[in-house]
UniProtKB/TrEMBL annotation:
Family membership: Belongs to the NipSnap family.
Ranges in a coiled coil: none
Domain NIPSNAP intervals: 1-98
Cited InterPro entries: Dimeric_a/b-barrel (IPR011008), NIPSNAP (IPR012577), NipSnap_domain (IPR051557)
Name of one Pfam family that matches: NIPSNAP
Entry protein name: NIPSNAP family protein
Record PANTHER family: NIPSNAP-RELATED, PROTEIN NIPSNAP
Length: 104
């Protein structure tokens, strides 16, 4: 799970950038989107996204491939100036969590 706190008034711009440039790359390399959300209450100006991986090693391998793509650097150069803070968490499912079909 990754949470970005976006500069006020810039959330829609970040979502457009991600939709047009980041999402196609994430889908190519990282595969299984669980959800992509914006905050409506609590801490505002936040974007949260969740991606499913087989395990931590699968995540590392996939993200390393993503980082090697020159288009990813272009996307980061455009999107990172909109971000004030980011936080990442590795979440492990409980025994009763729904199963998510993982992309190859």
């Amino acid at each position: 799970m990754r949470t970005y706190t976006i500069k006020p008034g810039r959330t829609e711009e970040l979502i457009r950038l991600f939709t047009d440039h980041g999402l196609p790359l994430y889908q190519k390399y990282c595969g299984s989107l669980v959800g992509y959300y914006t905050s409506e209450s609590g801490t505002l100006n936040q974007v949260v996204h969740l991606w499913a991986y087989r395990d931590v090693l699968d995540r590392e391998v996939r993200r390393a491939r993503l980082a090697e793509d020159p288009l990813w650097r272009v996307y980061l150069d455009q999107s990172l100036p909109l971000v004030e803070h980011q936080e990442s968490r590795i979440l492990r499912p409980t025994s009763f969590s729904p199963t998510i079909e993982l992309a190859e």
